[in-house]
UniProtKB/TrEMBL annotation:
It comes from Elongatibacter sediminis. Keywords: ATP-binding, Ligase, Nucleotide-binding. This is ATP-grasp domain-containing protein. PROSITE patterns: ATP_GRASP. Pfam families: ATP-grasp_3 (PF02655). GO terms for molecular function: ATP binding; ligase activity; metal ion binding.
Amino acid sequence: MQPTTRLMHSATQHLNSGAVPSRPMNLLVTNTQEEQAYLILRCLRHEAKRIVITVPEGSVFSRWSGISAWSRHVSRRYTVPDCTAEWRAGRIRAENTPAEEHYMQRIEEICVREQIDVIFPSYDAEVMVFAKNRARLAEQGILAIVPDYKPLARIIDKARTLEAARAVGFPTPASCIPENEAELLDAAGRLNPPWVLKPRCNAHGANIHRLEDVESLRTAFAELAAIQPRPLLQECVPVGTKRNYYLMVTPDFEVVSVHSPQIHRHRVIGVRTPCAVAETTDEVPLLDEVKALVRELGVWGAMTVQTIVSQHDGVPRLMEINPRFGHNLWYRTEFGVNEPLIYLRMVEGKPLPEIPRWPAGVLLLDPLWDLLQLYLLAVDRAGVWLRRRLGRNGGNIPGQSGESVRDLMRTLKSEYFGPSARVTNPLNRGLLSDPLPPLVRIGRTVLFEWNRRRAVKRERK
């Protein structure tokens, strides 16, 4: 049996052999536009009698573009209003706003109708709303899988997270929060361009600007301040690679699981650098600082500590902490570590399932993104060649390095067909067991990249 086959067999066997709960639950999974929501329902489907999901109100596309909405494991779908406006504006408060209260009332209606026992969110804004209403739901016999609200508020605000990191000696980019334009220009004068200007509360790299001149900085500051007051100004760390720490932390702040794969390749999407290929490893830099940061923040549950490794010194610098599962949850579930079930047992106060050790030297691959990157690189290189043949400026390829199509093909061949053990993203599989989600994911990914490239071309004109 090949290494890949052995790993996949072991993972599937472990995930399908979880202890049967005393009473199957009715599970509500929210924010199902996110890929991690589908991974969560897949991990908990054997624990649940029924799985109900929410989709956002709005257009048909917004309701049905999430892959979870198409899963055969879902018993019922409900629309819910938006609850993210206050979070996106950076207004973090312990009481519900009118929009959040409207959202909670809709959730409670769904819970009564479907006799929901457990709610599992995995997006920052919804995690925050459920955390502040956890006691309210508990009085109705509903368990929300979220951490405590007070420490959560420190994580959601990136500026407060960086303050905690500096307090325990975790490296961070030089940063400040300018109150006005005068403070902005003064701080920019102390930092060498380019600068990064971003909201203190955001996700998926939304509204993050990389700026190289003062006039652009002033314009971006005015735009961001209108969306979310007091944006965060940072030095731009030259990206050598990335380093993420995927943690499971108990309520007494013991880190019971930490996974920090080494990144081999990353994509460039605007100011974001998501992972393309990673490899499991036993070497985890700054692990003591990570644990100290968790204790300083006083937060527990599932979280992702995101860092950028500088080209200059090779030191990881903290960018943010996501207090939830992310779309790379499969990095752990494919090795039989059912983290959604572990998190559920943690919140229930029950003994935790056994957590297997991570095997080192296993490649973590996503064929969909790699094939798309190969195709787009080929299209771009062909366009450059054609423009040069016509006597025009070949131009630069936004978001691409100097890598050739042949180089990328050689790299992919070694990764997918070389001697190393490997696992692939499960969202690419399941055409027989749950056929529609993988197909919808392909369509979503291609459409996202097409829209992004159109936006880049508009900006260049």
